[in-house]
């Protein structure tokens, strides 16, 4: 297993957001986390990337216990997050934003290779290389956030709502790109409101409800599960 969460609990003050989350992500997989607003999807991602400390439980990554490791050192180990709400640096150019994603790296030739790869995946970013991040459209900023996360050459890419706020055509496109990134060798853990797309692209998925995992299966199993259809796919 590349990633293994064991019985994670997490508190925001007196509010318990996670009540014992256990899940695994195997090397080469796309795994989706779906669930209603407030279920704890983003919180689970923050626990993995180290943006929020857990109260109990453990996080194993690539054979190592990273539960208490600093967030920046997790990036060095190969965990990279594209956060919900994008978080691009508005005053920096597209290229500078991408370079920031590689700040832990020193090998210039490899960084340039990865810049080329991101520009190939997202031609729009190449066209807008010198434009300020903050003046890009919502969809373009979303692409920039994913591209920036790729610039650390992660083993595990954490994507929090990559389709949020995108027009239907761009939603298709961003999911196509996620599959392509995965096929190029990056393992992906994906949080999505768009359960239909996420389940149809993911190898496996987990359903979260109020900080607990209530169901797991292959993407296809969950896509055809009556309770999942009813609650998350908008069809009875
Ligand atoms: P959404 O899809 O709406 O973003 P989510 O599944 O990602 O939902 P989380 O953002 O992980 O949900 O939130 C889980 C719970 O923790 C919610 O009840 C939320 O109100 C609470 N929560 C999240 N962040 C904080 C915070 N910084 N302080 C206090 N409570 C928080």
TrEMBL record:
Keywords annotated in UniProt: Amino-acid transport, ATP-binding, Nucleotide-binding, Transport
Gene3D superfamilies reported in the protein's UniProt record: P-loop containing nucleotide triphosphate hydrolases (3.40.50.300)
Top-level lineage group: Bacteria
Record flagged with keyword Nucleotidyltransferase: no
PROSITE patterns in the cross-refs: ABC_TRANSPORTER_1, ABC_TRANSPORTER_2
Signal peptide interval: none
Pfam families noted in UniProt: ABC_tran
ABC transporter domain residues: 3-235
GO molecular function: ATP binding
Family to which the UniProt record says this protein belongs: Belongs to the ABC transporter superfamily.
Record protein name field: ABC transporter ATP-binding protein
Lineage of source species: Bacteria, Bacillati, Actinomycetota, Actinomycetes, Micromonosporales
Gene: livF_1
């Amino acid at each position: 297993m590349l990633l293994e969460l064991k019985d994670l609990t997490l508190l925001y003050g007196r509010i318990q957001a996670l009540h014992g989350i256990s899940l695994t992500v195997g090397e080469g997989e796309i795994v989706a986390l779906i669930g209603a607003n407030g279920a704890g999807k983003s919180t689970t991602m923050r626990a993995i990337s180290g943006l929020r400390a857990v109260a109990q439980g453990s996080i194993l990554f690539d054979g190592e216990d990273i539960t208490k490791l600093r967030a920046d050192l997790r990036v060095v180990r190969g965990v990279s997050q594209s956060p919900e709400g994008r978080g691009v640096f508005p005053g920096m150019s597209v290229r500078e934003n991408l370079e920031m994603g590689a700040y832990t790296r020193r090998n210039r030739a490899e960084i340039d290779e990865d810049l080329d790869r991101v520009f190939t995946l997202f031609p729009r970013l190449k066209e807008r290389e010198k434009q300020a991040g903050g003046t890009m459209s919502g969809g373009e900023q979303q692409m920039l956030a994913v591209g920036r996360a790729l610039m650390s050459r992660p083993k595990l890419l954490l994507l929090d709502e990559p389709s949020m706020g995108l027009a239907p055509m761009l939603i298709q496109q961003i999911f196509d790109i996620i599959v392509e990134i995965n096929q190029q060798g990056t393992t992906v853990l994906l949080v999505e409101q768009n359960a239909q797309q996420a389940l149809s692209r993911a190898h496996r998925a987990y359903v979260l409800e109020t900080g607990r995992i209530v169901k797991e299966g292959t993407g296809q199993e969950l896509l055809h599960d009556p309770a999942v259809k009813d609650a998350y796919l908008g069809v009875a």
